[in-house]
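Quick start: what a row looks like.
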Amino acid sequence: YGLTLPLEGDTVKLCVDVYTDWMMALVSPRDSMPQPVVKEPNMYVQTILRHLYNVFVPRPEQHSLNHIRLCQQVLTAVQKLARESVSMARETWEVLLLFLLRINDTLLAP
């Protein structure tokens, strides 16, 4: 998983960029997205949300500006997805809500 790598390089940022872009298949699919993602967006968005949880897992360099920006990028994309998607399946909503609960539990736990 690229999202579990250290934040020093560009790998995690690029993974977040790809995942947040592909999540928008439920909002406005584009030709640049892989066809499997466009054809089955709910299935892929559910997997993407499960993977994006790793961005919020505490790291030694947790308070870096880069980490904060990545978290903001993910949350902004999730907010757009929740507000603008017209074809999100119930299962995807459930995964999205579980994602939000998990990151809150991770970030707010002592």
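That is the whole record. The longest helix spans residues 65-84. The chain has a mean pLDDT of 94.
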